[in-house]
Design brief:
The complex is a heterodimer of chains A (729) and B (227). Chain A is an alpha+beta fold. Chain A has a seven-stranded mixed sheet with strand order 8-10-7-11-9-12-13. In chain A, helix 7 runs parallel beside helix 8 (138-156) and helix 8 runs parallel beside helix 10. Chain A is globular. The two termini of chain A are 51 Å apart. Chain B is an alpha/beta fold. In chain B, 21% of the residues lie in helices and 25% in strands. Chain B contains five helices and eleven strands. Chain B has helices at residues 14-25, 68-77, 87-94, 151-159, 218-226; strands at residues 3-7, 30-33, 44-47, 81-85, 101-103, 111-119, 135-142, 146-148, 163-168, 187-191, 197-200. In chain B, strands 2-1-3-4-11-10-9-6-7 form a nine-stranded mixed sheet, with helices on both faces. In chain B, helix 1 crosses helix 5. Classes of the chains: A alpha+beta (729), B alpha/beta (227). Chain A binds chain B through residues 147, 150-151, 154-157, 239-242, 244-245, 332-333, 416-428, 430, 440, 442, 555-556, and chain B through 9-10, 12-13, 15-16, 19-20, 49-51, 53-56, 109-113, 139, 141, 143, 203, 205-206, 211-213.
Amino acid sequence: MTEINESLARSFGLTGEEFERVLSIMGRTPTLTELGIFSVMWSEHCSYKSSRVWLKQLPTKRPWVIHGPGENAGVVDIGDGLAAIFKMESHNHPSFIEPYQGAATGVGGILRDVFTMGARPIANLNALRFGDPNHPKTRRIIDGVVRGIGGYGNCVGVPTVGGEINFHPSYNGNPLVNAMTVGIAPKDRIFLSAAAGVGNPVVYVGSKTGRDGIHGATMASAEFAADSEEKRPTVQVGDPFTEKLLIEACLELMATDAIVAIQDMGAAGLTSSSVEMAGKGGVGIEIDIDAVPARETGMTAYEFMLSESQERMLMIIRPDRQDLARSIFEKWDLDFAVIGRLTDTGRIVVRHQGQVEADIPLAPLSDQAPLYTRPTVDTPKREKLNPARIEDRYGLTRGLEKLIGSPDLASRAWVWDQYDSTVGGMTVKRPGAADAAVVKLDGLSRGLALTTDCTPRYCQADPETGGMQAVAEAWRNLTAVGARPLALTDNMNFGNPEKPEIMGQFAAAIRGMAAACEALDFPVVSGNVSLYNETEGQAILPTPAIGGLGVLDDVTKAVGIALSPWLDLVLIGTTAGWLGQSLWLREIGGREDGPPPPVDLAAERANGDFVRTHILNGTIRACHDISDGGILVAVAEMAMASGVGARLSAHPPNIPGHAFWFGEDQGRYIVAVPDHAAFIRVAEAANIPATRLGTSGGQNLTLPDGGTISIAALRAAHERFFPALMDTV
Amino acid sequence: MKAGLIIFPGINRERDMAIALQNSFGTAPKMLWHKDTDLGGLDLVVIPGGFSFGDYLRCGAMAAQSPIMRAVKDHADRGGYILGVCNGFQILTEAGILPGALLRNASLRFLSMDCHLRVERADTVFTNRYQTGQTFRAVMAHGDGNYFADATMLDKLEAENLVALRYATRTGEIAAEANRNGSARAIAGIYSPNLRVLGLMPHPEDLVDPLMGGADGKPLFDALAAA
């Protein structure tokens, strides 16, 4: 028999002080199962104990927000009586240990968060960060993660329509896999998790419970050491076929009035779902472990409660609808078991083979959960760089060719080509076609625009500006297809919060994000925090990934980035030639230096609102925001998207050429319009900075310094990186 | 022509197919469950794409044993029309309704991209709105689309003019770079000897609306609707 003491509690991830608190709540030594429940519920992953005090600063309300943070996913009103339900969640630690299953179950988990609320999932996105391409582990991790995302998403039949990939050595031992799902439901048919109705049955549906993923949430709440690969048994195994059946069965049941409350079993499995459902509803819950469908024999109550076996849901059902519910799950060949009932005791009681294995008061389990205001240290500000003093030894043409072939800008087609982006028949803008993915809503003229964004090198240099920029860029990408940005989900990936400089990054990123959300009317409606992203003391770049959602009332008005011939290219926004933290400085200049470009939120808003208006009135035929790599990379991407080239005009004499063409000033767009003069007049009348950049046409990109590069050559340079890295032995 | 879809557990392109059929036929297709045993008087049976039973066994092998497949075989024997796309094509080969097999893609990776299909004959109920030799664009999205049959069977298919569609360049050339999954003789789709059963890997149903990137697949459904 295992002895229950502080040393065991520590091995479960609790601190000595937290263990003392467990003893005081229980008034006795907890059982193994009870200690397991406390340790997972109080893990960083489930309790947000280091981040909650900061997350509260984020704006979460606007009139169109139906449910903000606190539910399984965020819910916003998108018109026509419909709601979009969406969230992004990390599966970083499992994806390092076992890339395929880690990424696959990340997709599965976020899908469940969305359909548990009554939504049919209509799109997936993913934000990925990998280590140095030359690091010995990177290739294997990319291969597994991409196969895992495809293997799960393709089978379950939800199109993967967008996302982003960055490379940086700080992710060598800690890749980031952030998966986002968007679903649609009638806005008056949203399912919540608060249990109600003393005596109501607690129903378990889906896959059987096995020994996989035990203490996954605890594993995800600690740094990695050199032995991390020994933690492989904490990674779950995904079964997308069962998930597909579960989606269909749940949606079929949700069309009836049988369900009182429902929650998926994600991190900490049966423990977190039962504790959270009963806790939110202010009731008690009894679980009979003997009734839980088991994959193997001889499992203990502790293992049942902590298993993270996938594709399982917990529901509270109306007693008079139990037979109906059972018949639906039997039709789909899924397990359906009544495993308990709600009580009025305010306690969770777990019985196994006639023994009470756990009996915990729910209120203190959540009210007295640890909450830390950890010490913070601000990231030192960096000195501004003077572009005139940074030499350009490459020239524009060679610089462009090198940049668009660099890991962070090279074509992602190798990755997208492994994700089914069209299943469902509603994908209007596939990956790469536009700044945001666009999906139509079945039977309506309405569509959604979706994007994920973050620039981690900006966040590292200045977390506040970086956080602000991530939100602004997501808003800008939605705007650039013509959508009205509605809300975002955030996935906060950081290092060890017990280090003041890491907690300082977190606090500053939140400050920046909050300011941008406020100024852009772009509230946070859901999110996830992933801390302890460190291996052997090496933290990742701070990565607050933003998943943005916008709406197009008429989806036929959406524009992409592809140029068509004989249009004028106009630059919207102000260009100072900001080279600090630019990709040009890193890839061509060989240094990661300076502060990131500042974000002027008022200009961001004004420029974006202007661009959107003129997309929707049909003036703007193609639009691309200017981000990594600056103006010249943006023009090259527009040209490569269609095969139509452009001739560019001379840059303003007061800015060095390389700073003008490759600088990363924020709040800018390139738009293609039929008549630059008329368009610029309208812009000037609205006080929007607009300057002519050039004209589209031909099969070359002709630069003002006389350099010319064919679209074919650009594409060859752009498309080389991934196949060369991944398809060679 | 009365059309219906068969839903096996794990099928996931039924809505795409239903939209394409509805657009051309003007009525919603009937949805049949794999445990049904009767086709309810359908003229055209469509087996859409997806991952029936997770494709954890050989793709389509489990679905080929479902109760409804008896009725589908009888329908084929009576000269009924059948369209199997992607997993549907795999199921038809596993059920022995069409010859050959679909192997893992030559690259060993899932392939999701547009491809061009060359129409090998335009005198069937499926292709009479295209021209022989014409190419049209379709979406491919599969991990196991590499058509295989032994040389005798391939020769027979060609001799009897039963190859329906081949992967080709935009201008209709057969070339290795256009045959991404490595199919034998670039075969993307085949007919039964009576030309009433068509199995193909790529998805014409995902390109029936210019808003989604093109309507190249629409003539196939228009032709069926008019039959």
